[in-house]
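We emphasize that the prediction below concerns an isolated chain of 183 residues; any contacts that depend on oligomerization or on bound cofactors are therefore not represented. The input was used exactly as deposited, without trimming of termini.
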Amino acid sequence: MKAFCVLGSPRQKGNTAKVLGWIEDELRSGDYAVVRLNLGNGVLAPCRECYACKKVADAPGCSQDDRGNSIFLEMMTADLIVFASPIFCWGVSAQLKALLDRAFCLLKEDERLLLAGKRMALVATGAGETKDNLDLLVPPYQAFAQYFKCKDIGTLLVPGCTTPDKLNGDVEKRARKFGRSLA
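Result of the prediction step, given as a token string:
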């Protein structure tokens, strides 16, 4: 089985990357081949809403000349998709938001959804609390999963993240347990 993990953090070795790494370790132990995409280096431009993708029936079909189409093909072939992001102004990072917006290309004119049936999870980290902070990322994620007819299999919200070296053993235990639950 294949897990496609999307790191939406601009920091490749930050809190979110560290937590996602523990989850990926557990997925590998559960016989998943894990592919990680690091969005933090600006691999995706925002959606131009040109509708060129609607002319392509069975593939993403985005007209932009970046990694978008290959990323969406990875998502389409994965058994599990894990989105991971730090919280940015009560939402996911701009890098992950661009990917979610560009997923418009996976909705076809005949109303077919090219991600239908995929298992999906969200991991979010933040320096602040969970209530009225990290929990605000959950409803948009759930709406995305529901709209694309994916199976939401869980969220892991990790508050109190300041620097990766200060993530304690409890965070690692929670992340690994979450990873096992996904596997």
